[in-house]
Amino acid sequence: MNFNPKMLQIYLVGGTQDTHHDSYEFLAKVEEAMQAGITAFQYREKDSSTMTADARLVMARRLVEMGNRYSIPVLIDDDVQMALRVGADGVHVGQDDEKIEQVIKEAADKLIIGYSCNTAAEVEKANQLSAIDYLGCGPVFETTSKVDADPVLGLTKLKKLNKLSTHPLVAIGGLSLENIPEVLKTGVAGLSMISLVLNSKNITETIEKIKTLVK
Ligand code: 3NM
């Protein structure tokens, strides 16, 4: 699937660590979210996960197959080789992950490339790299979903980074139904979240509410 900034509008991120290491619950929740209308999904299985490399590969294949059924792009966090192997639509890399130049070499023209940035210097560097499709910026607010999260950005810094960036930007970290309207006012292209959706008692209803805010 070719990149389109609209894909960033409701961008769900998650791995089995976000559903108490229960693979069935994880797949069921992602499927409900896809049915309800998320616009992209990123498979992010963290080191805290108990899954073997083979199990991650099987999970990634299932998610790509699910994404194909719902015509929703599936990206893989921090693993270009896995993304290429399972036929994913893209890869997302952080500042500490594989070096961005190396990722571009391996993935340009094959995968959508997302890159985490949370300082002006990082955004300026990303502006020089035209193979990057979008930037992920956060955490905008406090989050409990990422153990090694950078300091909280807040809305003022987010707005500045968005203005500075030549790439479309997706906001991540601590997003809630209450703060999404303020986040959208910064002009970002999209919203990315884990717990707002995966911890929701009613995923379909939550996504319906996000959709009305994004419109
Ligand atoms: N990346 P929640 S914050 C995966 O700042 C991730 O780059 C972040 O989870 C960053 O929506 C984060 O539950 C966790 O706050 C987002």
UniProtKB/TrEMBL annotation:
Source organism, top-level taxon: Bacteria
Residue ranges occupied by any Thiamine phosphate synthase/TenI domain in the UniProt entry: 11-195
Enzyme class: transferase
Pathway: Cofactor biosynthesis; thiamine diphosphate biosynthesis; thiamine phosphate from 4-amino-2-methyl-5-diphosphomethylpyrimidine and 4-methyl-5-(2-phosphoethyl)-thiazole: step 1/1
Molecular function terms from GO: thiamine-phosphate diphosphorylase activity
Cofactor detail note: Binds 1 Mg(2+) ion per subunit.
Sorted UniProt keywords: Magnesium, Metal-binding, Thiamine biosynthesis, Transferase
EC number from the UniProt entry: 2.5.1.3
Keyword presence, Metal-binding: yes
Residues annotated for 2-[(2R,5Z)-2-carboxy-4-methylthiazol-5(2H)-ylidene]ethyl phosphate binding in this entry: 143-145, 174, 194-195
InterPro entries: Aldolase_TIM, ThiamineP_synth_sf, ThiamineP_synth_TenI, TMP_synthase
Signal sequence segment: none
One Pfam family linked to the record: TMP-TENI
Binding site for Mg(2+): 78, 97
Cofactors named for this entry: Mg(2+)
Catalytic activity reported: 2-[(2R,5Z)-2-carboxy-4-methylthiazol-5(2H)-ylidene]ethyl phosphate + 4-amino-2-methyl-5-(diphosphooxymethyl)pyrimidine + 2 H(+) = thiamine phosphate + CO2 + diphosphate; 4-methyl-5-(2-phosphooxyethyl)-thiazole + 4-amino-2-methyl-5-(diphosphooxymethyl)pyrimidine + H(+) = thiamine phosphate + diphosphate; 2-(2-carboxy-4-methylthiazol-5-yl)ethyl phosphate + 4-amino-2-methyl-5-(diphosphooxymethyl)pyrimidine + 2 H(+) = thiamine phosphate + CO2 + diphosphate
Family from the record: Belongs to the thiamine-phosphate synthase family.
Biological function: Condenses 4-methyl-5-(beta-hydroxyethyl)thiazole monophosphate (THZ-P) and 2-methyl-4-amino-5-hydroxymethyl pyrimidine pyrophosphate (HMP-PP) to form thiamine monophosphate (TMP).
Protein name per UniProt: Thiamine-phosphate synthase
Gene that this sequence comes from: thiE
